[in-house]
Amino acid sequence: MDRVFYWYMLHYAMISVQNISKKYDEKEVLKGITLEIPKSKTVSLIGPSGCGKSTLLRIIMGLIPRDSGTVLIDGKELKDSNKLELRRRMGYVVQKGGLFPHLTAKENISLVTHYLEWEKAKINSRIEELLRLVRIDPVLLSKKPGNISGGQAQRISLMRALMLDPDIILLDEPLGSIDPLVRHELQSDLKEIFKTLNKTVLLVTHDLGEAAYLGDEIVLMREGEVAQQGAIHQILQNPASEFVQKFVSAQRSPLEGIK
Ligand code: ADP
Ligand code: MG
Fold it and tell me: Does the C-beta of 50 come closer than 6 Å to ligand 1?
């Protein structure tokens, strides 16, 4: 392959966020955020509660407007006129799963396909595929979110996000409220799924261990700004500021304090 083309493929940004700002009332929630998510890579977005992680994801999805700046999805500028079309290329797992409580798991998963008028057979075969991928018992499909466990609900949310086979997946603290054993298992499964599917993934977490385990790169945010972006070893070895240093050392190791 041509070397220049090869370099380009390796570094091609599937999501490019340029100088995004957003105010709520008078509060600047995002202050000129710039970051790139390379094709087929997983980037973990981490930072203290309220620093603007969810707001950034919603802006990338075109769910809320930005005050200034540009979002490019696979090289196309996100605009009001194309946001619906671009949104279909992104699977989104919202914070707390966001399943509709009055719909069964299957209805939740297939909701989006009704707008696209998929045939029943196509819906069912796609669901079959995804059941194997996310390792879900088919029995759960007829249950409502209130009757399944938190971990299972997150697998269903993931299936819903993957239904249209999007190039990009955005996950907002997908494992935030899951108990530790289930969380550990879901982390390994997510890693495996991301690897198998070769998707471009942006994942929000508040856990540095999870960010490092799942992400090829980490973006650490603070109060609407990027404090540091890099591989975990760069962040640990060369923290860009006192804030980064403090954030890293505040993540307690389980063995700390055991003599
Ligand atoms: P994070 O996901 O990092 O915890 P958010 O993006 O949810 O942070 O929120 C960033 C800031 O914006 C917070 O101060 C939050 O209170 C504020 N905020 C978020 N959504 C709204 C909204 N719809 N209206 C007003 N303020 C909001
Ligand atoms: Mg959030």
Answer: yes
